[in-house]
Amino acid sequence: MNFKIVGIGELLWDILPAGPQLGGAPGNFAYHAHALGADALLISRVGEDDLGHRALHQLEKLGLPADCVEIDPKLPTGSVTVRILEGGQPHYEIHENVAWDALRGESAARHAVAGADAVCFGSLAQRNEPSRTTIRSLLAAAPRAALRIFDINLRQNYFSTAVIQESLNLSNALKVNDTELPVLADMFHLNGDVRSQITELAHRWQLRCVAYTRGGHGSLLFSKGKFSDHPGFPSKVIDTIGAGDAFTAAMTIGLLAGWDLDRVNENANRIAAYVCSCAGATPVLPEKLRGPFLTLNLA
Questions:
Q1: Contact, 36 vs 63, CB < 8 A?
Q2: Mean per-residue pLDDT for 235-258?
């Protein structure tokens, strides 16, 4: 049961106080899915420059194939200046006119999506054309039974109601955090408390699952009319970069495996809490955390 999982979107360098680290939500997601035993890869685009070559080399070190990472002859590899605020929360300054804004969706990418069990994408990589159209075209090529997870990732002003609505139309699962849900509630006139808003999102867009993360306070999952509420695990937070992506990867594998919702929620929180205790988005995961997933994927 070796799940094929694809992340689509931005691959970039996070310029952190301690130095540059490879990042971008889809890449982080693909890394953690791979670390948990899935057959995972990333569809993205880098520049034909030093940062691009370093990105491809780093993907190889992380165990991710680079077959679906395009190389742009003109635009530079993406980068983000990151400041760590109180509580380990990152603040991003995302640079524009970079390679992942020009994603084309070459034949290798289309082949990968056509055989995927799950595809994850966000809003940031849809900020410009041609990437926006490419991502939508790739999602349309996914198998009908595949999970299509919209990990919304609202960043700066790089989103719109039209992009969010069309992304929801193309999805059957949603991951949203406690700062993003109020934006959706205002955007789509969702009423009531958090659970009511989540239920309405699920029903309006016929979503198989909605994940609502609350930082150090755990998460709510909603699927098939039922909620699972997990308080989260205590963690000595170094930074929170990549924790949400790790949560999404663990949740995706649990959902594909058919685990009950509480088990999915507990394991996703456990993985995310560990990532918060490490610097950067892609730490090596201990064997004890990977165990339940590796057993699943070797079954």
A1: no
A2: 94
Separation between Cα atoms, residue 231 and residue 266, nearest integer Å: 9
Strands in the chain per DSSP E: 4-8, 12-16, 19-23, 39-47, 69-72, 78-84, 90-94, 118-121, 147-151, 173-177, 209-213, 219-223, 226-230
**Predicted local distance difference test score (pLDDT) of residue 298:** 46
User: What is the assigned CATH class of domain 4-298?
Assistant: alpha beta
Per DSSP, the three-state class of 190 is coil
Domain boundaries, given as residue ranges, for the chain: 4-298
Look up residue 181 and give its two tokens.
């849900």
d(CA 146, CA 103): 22
Split at pLDDT 50, 70, 90, the class of 91 is: confident
Average pLDDT across the chain, whole number: 93
pTM: 0.93
Lowest mean pLDDT among 7-21, 77-91, 220-234, 244-258: 77-91
CA geometry: angle at 120 spanning 110 and 62, to 5°?
85
Distances (CA, A) of 220 to 17, 239, 260: 32, 22, 14
Gap between the terminal Cα atoms of the chain: 6
CA 21 – CA 58 distance, rounded (Å):
9
pLDDT the model gives residue 297: 52
Calpha distance 132→158 (Å, rounded): 12
Q: How many CB atoms lie within 10 A of CB 152?
A: 24
Q: How confident is the model at residue 299 (pLDDT cuts 50, 70, 90)?
A: very low
Give the 3-state secondary structure of residue 102.
helix
Other C-beta atoms lying within 10 Å of the C-beta of residue 286: 9
CA distance 273 to 233: 6
Two tokens, residue 5: 């999982």
